[in-house]
Specification:
about 25% helix, about 550 residues, alpha+beta, ten-stranded antiparallel β-sheet, 16 strands
Length: about 550
Amino acid sequence: MDNYKEQGPGGADDHRFAEGEGEKTLTTRQGHPVRTNQNLRTIGNRGPATLENYDYIEKISHFDRERIPERVVHARGTGAHGYFETYGKAGDEPVEKYTRAKVFSGAGKKTPVLVRFSTVTHSAGSPETLRDPRGFAVKFYTEDGNWDLVGNNLKVFFIRDAMKFPDLIHSFKPDPVTNIQDSERIFDFLSETPESMHMVTFLFSPWGIPANYRQMQGSGVNTYRWVNDEGKAVLVKYHWEPLKQGIKNLTQEEANEIQAENFNHATQDLYEAIESGDYPEWELCVQIMEDHEHPELDFDPLDDTKLWPDDQFPFLKVGKMVLNKNPDNYFNEIEQAAFGTGVLVDGLDFSDDKMLQGRTFSYSDTQRYRVGANYQQLPANAPKKHAATNYEGGSMSYFVDRPEGSNPHVNYEPSSLNGLEESPPKKAPHQPYVEGKLKKEPIDRENNFKQAGERYRMLKDWERDDLINNLVVSLKPCHTHIQKKMVSLLTQCDEDYGSRVAEGLGMNAAAGQMNEEFANDITPSKGKLPKRGGSPIGSDGAADAVDQAEEKGHEADPY
C-alpha cells in the first residue's frame, strides 16, 4: 500500500509534492497548484474575463456536473406561461433612445414568456419555506429569438467574482459526510467573505423567506448593457416589481408553522391563483447608467454585492408581465426548461461584470449536461421563430435544423452548394474598447460594509428583530472564532448590528471576548445544541427535533 502511494496514479493521499506544496495544498485535477482561488483572470481587475481561464473552467465545468439529473442549484421550482407587454418607453423617454431590442419597442406589443421560480440551494423535493434566495427566471420568445433574463428575488448576491461560486454553493449544500445543511460550514465561508454581509443582511431577515412566489420581487442582479441603433451602449439593471399582489415575507417562526402543514405551499399558491383567474403581474423596471467606471461612486457599478442608489439611478418602467397559463405538463415545460445568462437578442449585450461572464459559460453548460446537447430543440426551449443550424448529432437529437430546400449533404459554412448562409449584418455593432494587463485581482472599490449597514438601518423593527434572532440561532452552534469574526464584520456594517448579535451570543463585542457561562445560559436552541457543527440556518430546535421524533413516536408491533 505504501508503494502505491509512492508510485500510483496520484490523488489526495499521494505523497509526491512539487516544490512548496504540502498535504493541504489546493490543486487542479491535473495536479497544478492553485495560486489564486479568489479571482478570474481578467483584463485589468474589473474585466472582461478571458477564455483561457483554465483553472476556472476546470472548476466550474466540474461543478456544473455535480448533480444528475436535477439542477445543481435552483432544483426546487415551479413555473407558468404568460406574456410581456411593452410600454414602448423607458420612463418618459422612447425606449429606442437606449436599446434597439424589438421586445421593448411598440407600445402594447405582447411577447410570450415562460417563467420559472425556484429556491437556490436545496434539492428538488425540499420545502418551499426554507431560508434561501429565490430564483426568478424569464424566457422571452421574442421575434428575434429567445432572450433569457435569469435572476433572483433579491437584488444583490454573496460574491462578486465567479471563481468563488462553487465554494459558496458547497458551503450552503449539505455536509459531504453527514448530508445535513450545517450553519457552521455556511458561516465559516461567509466570515471569510466580507462582501457577503449585504446579502447576509437580506437573507437572514424576513426577506430571506418570501411568503410565496407571486408576492416577491425579481432582479437580474448582474449588470448588462443596452445598445441602440447607433451602437451606443449604456449599463442597465433589471427589476421585477409585483403589481396588484404586493410583496409579503415571513418570519422564521411563521415559516416553520407553514412548513409543518404544507411543504409545497408556494407551488400550490401559484397554480391555484392562475387556475382561478387571479393572474399575478409584475412591472419590469430598469436602472440605466452611462457605460464607464464611475469614479464618483464609492463602489464599482459592476459589483453584484451592491445596489445602485435609486435616487441617482431611478427605476424606469418599461413594461409589465402577466402569468395567465399553468403548464400542461410540469416535467416537459418547467423541469426541462433551460435558462442561460448568455441568451440575448440584438440590442441587449453583456457588461464586464465578472459574475455575469462566469455565469454565462456555466448556465448553458449545465443545461447541455443536465438535459442534453440538443436541449434547445425541446418545445419549452425552442424559439418561436425560424431556427436553422449546422449542428449535428449528440444525445437526444430530435430533428435536423436544416430547412427543406437546403442541401442535406452540406452541414458546414461557407459553401457554394446551397447550404445555410450568414445573415447580412444589421445596425451599428457596439464595439467597446478594452485594454489592460491580464490579472487575477479583486476590484479596487470593494466597500464591503456601507450598503449592508444602510440596509440594516432601513429594516423595520420587527424585521431587525427577526434578522438578529436568525443570525444568533444560526451562529450559536458554530466555533467561537467564527462567531467572533462574524460579529466583527457585522459591527463594521453597523455598531448596533454587531453588538446585538454579540449580545445574543454572550459576547462582549467591544472586547471581542466570550462569556462562556453566560453564552451557555442563553443558548437559543430550545433544549440543546447539535452534537457537532451547526444545524440548518434559521432553526432553533434542530437538535431537539431529533430526540422529539423518538420520544413522541408511537410504538408499533412488527407485521
